[in-house]
Amino acid sequence: MEDLFLWMMEDEMWFSDAVDMLLVAMLKDESTSLHFKQPQNARSLVGFQFVNDILTGHPMRCYNIFRMTSTNFRILCQKISSSLNTKKTSTEEQLAIFLLCVGHGCSIQKLAGDFQHSAESIYGFFKDVLKAILSLHDEYIKVPDSSAGVHPLVGPNSGNYLFKDALGAIDGIHIQAVVKEDNMERFHNRKGFLSQNVLAACSFDMLFQYVAVGWEGSASDMRILRWALEEGGFDVPTGRYYLADFGYTNTSKFLSPYKNHPYHLAQFNRRPRSSRFVASEDLYNHRHAQLRNVIERTFGVLKMRFKVLDRMPKFQYRIQT
Ligand SMILES: *[C@@H]1O[C@H](CO)[C@@H](O)[C@H](O)[C@H]1NC(C)=O
Predict the structure, then answer these.
(1) What is the pLDDT of residues 136-148, one digit of tens each?
(2) Counting CB atoms within 10 angstroms of each CB, which of 46, 49, 68, 273 has the fewest?
(3) What is the position in ligand 1's atom list of the atom closest to the CA of 250?
(4) Which of 29, 37, 55 is nearest to 114 (CA)?
């Protein structure tokens, strides 16, 4: 996982160029086939060739372009195909269009040109695939029940056994939002940009278990959590909890660190080794910070993998969420 992550960072520079080059090459083929007066066939061929070329090509290229392996791409196709209209355009092509949009922030206009569909059709495919994927939500994003096993990271020999009942960590993340003038104030966050504040819980394996979307950037993390618990269906099983930072009130279901003690890992690292943990609360906070960090890393991977989150198109807000 870690290796893959580094690899992705190194290649971030060139892979969107690679998509462009591939598409340009295919459009050249396309223009030759136009001489044979087969615009209709040629049109469906562009997308078919493109997708097929990538799925059967080098595994890393597929991963870079679609942000998933070809195996996962095919599995996802099977899961969503029954909710799509595939009479004229295949599931594979529609999913490819969707993934180029969310994975690289490719605009609808650009995709329309590259895949030779109208912008309306492209946006239609995008929305259909989005809806189909959202319908899988309950299958993949769920809080485990109280019988869930203790994760090895907090297991008996981990040094973190104190947190043995932790399911993972929660935090809020600000995702860029594009909103109308009269809404701007509400969406203005403390960091000074317009955003949607998203609350998420993830496991120690970096899998999302709960997500609350749509809240405006000015909403506080605690307010969103309160909503999630009261109305948003966020049910943490009895006896289990998530780790949360200072922005959240300490409760039996969300353990936050001790105030007035160092918390950030850098604060500990600055101290000499022999006096790193002056009080037992320091040690608690240090272990807590190390474990809670999984949510930061998960957000990091999410933003890296789906570029649209940093380059939000002017979609309806509902679609953005
Ligand atoms: C948070 O609450 C839990 C249980 O209610 C308690 O055991 C823990 O000591 C509290 N943590 C802090 C930092 O106060």
Answers:
(1) 999 999 999 999 9
(2) 273
(3) 1
(4) 29
